[in-house]
Description:
This protein is of the alpha/beta class. It has helices spanning about 20-30, 50-60, 85-90, 100-105, 125-135, 165-175, 190-200, 235-245, 260-270, 310-315, 335-340, 370-385, 395-400, 405-410, and strands at about 1-5, 15, 40, 65, 70-75, 85, 110-115, 140, 145-150, 155-160, 180-185, 205-210, 215-220, 225-230, 250-255, 275-280, 280-285, 295, 325, 345-350, 355, 365-370, 390, 415-420.
Amino acid sequence: MAKYIVKQSLSLSGEVEISGSKNAVLPIMAAALLTDELCEITGVPALRDVDVMCGLMRGIGARVNEFYSDKAIEIKTDKIDSEEAPNELVKKMRASVLVMGPLLARTGRARIALPGGCAIGTRPINLHLKGLKALGANISSENGYVIASADKLRGANIYLDSPSVGATENITMAAVLAEGTTVIENAAEEPEIVDMVNFLNKMGAKIKGAGTDTVRIEGVKKLSGAKHAVIPDRIETGTFMLAAAITRGNVLIKNAVSDHVKPITAKLKECGAVIDIVDDGLTVDARHGILTSTDIKTLPYPGFPTDIQSQFMAFLTTVHGAGMVIENVFENRYMHVNELNRMGANIKIEGRVAIVEGDRRLHGAEVFATDLRAGAALVLAALAARGTTQISEIHHIERGYSAFAEKLKGIGADIIRMEE
Ligand code: EPZ
């Protein structure tokens, strides 16, 4: 297993380039299963999760060629050999469930290992199944697998009890080849869903309303191949915005889509950071003045993103005054708190609420990443902390951040990656 050794690195400066979005490229790769023609995806981030999805697609029967130097992937699924997402892959990556909708639409059958819980919550898929059932699928379960089958999928009106990103994506992909029109109410509105829908519409799908709470899909007979460039990763963008802020630095974040990070920009400005939108991204300047605390509560997009909660919390430990964090999306997304407290933070949790004391002088410690974003938060805290921090279990981090240590080094961080 590998670890990061991070030494205090204040005043980060320079420029960093954001890679393609993990949470857009994964559903887009799954959507490529809906056609037997060639799909070319560019702007693909070099991530462990992308490797897992490539493996899953190959197991299904897709031919997947990766051109890492050009950050491109070609997918051609002439035929489906297996309608299954096996347990060992779903366990590694919950997003494997996103092949369920496309497999059902393409072959009339999908056998998906039920994703177990993970560090941040139980993460059920009941809303995915509710939607597929409404489209006419029979749903059954055996030995920890869920089986969805249908001779024909027919359009339906589906209300999502909560705006689930994955359920919106899975149902949309199943509906594009259904007979008739499907309307998803209370749909999730994330930019990654819009990106997936843009790809599907290039393939010949007829989808309207992506990015709003009502998505309308008019079924078509067949989809063709398409070429698509994945949007930049807004969570990586937010993470580097916070790297600049927590070290009181001044960083240009290139290839960032400022529209996708409005809640993070607003909250950092409330704390006193200066953020400017520039031609090819945005700058975060936290060099001047005393930064003060604020409160954040996570909500589905366009609210404050849950995937930035832990990184923002690390930042709040270093500003003046106490801040309150409310995690509304996942039921157990405070795994980073114990580790931050071991670095000198003073964070108290009451249910979904965390009270974060400010003005803390963080110090290095031996900590470990429990999940992707918690691990990123520990790296940010380590940049601000006096002394040296060792972060183990960094495979969690490398699932969602490509060349993380190199990018941080590029703006002045003292971080090395070591095999344990
Ligand atoms: C996506 O996960 C992202 N992953 C997550 O990013 C992100 O945190 C999450 O959306 C919320 O924004 C990908 O896109 C690959 P949800 P997803 O379905 O689709 C409950 C990261 O760090 N729920 O919107 O799994 C669920 O338990 C990852 O990059 C149901 O109850 O999220 C959770 O509490 C972490 N029933 C809430 O909804 C369902 O059928 C949000 O889940 C589905 C979800």
